[in-house]
Amino acid sequence: CCGFGGLFSVRYEPVAGAMARSRLEMFADSGVKRIISNDPGCIMHLRQHAGRLGLDLKIEHLVQLLAEAVKPNQTLDRAPAAADELPAGSLPTGGTGQAGEKTVVI
Question: Is the N or the C terminus of the chain less surrounded, counting Cβ atoms within 10 Å?
């Protein structure tokens, strides 16, 4: 949990902020450069605290990662059932993203 939790981050801002900071510092200390989340609230919360901490982290939505996986002018007859059905080389593997940057999906 990033600490956002809707009204939790408003009612318990010191706790919510501490939760975000601890996650961000843990990721930054382990070399992560990109955080992927499916929750817009988490993205907003983590971006806010990363900025306050001066951390150089990309915090993006899962759709942005998936959009990178689809090459320009590529069409799929159906949605892939699993990542291994996507075209080779389209998703980061081994915990690295673009140009070998370390990525974490939360």
Answer: N
CA 10 to chain centre: 22
- 105 CB neighbour count, 10 Å cutoff: 13
Q: Nearest Cα to 50, choosing from 72, 27, 80?
A: 27
| Residue 76 banded pLDDT, cuts 50, 70, 90 | low
The residue type found at 43 is: I
Strands of the chain (E only): list them: 32-37, 58-61, 102-105
Q: Quickly tell me which residue has 């915090």 as its tokens.
A: 59
Q: What angle do CA 44, 97, 95 make, to 5 degrees?
A: 95
Which two three-digit tokens encode residue 63? Answer: 């759709």
Distance CA 68, CA 98 (A): 9
- Tell me the pTM: 0.68
Question: Which two three-digit tokens encode residue 81?
Answer: 């059932």
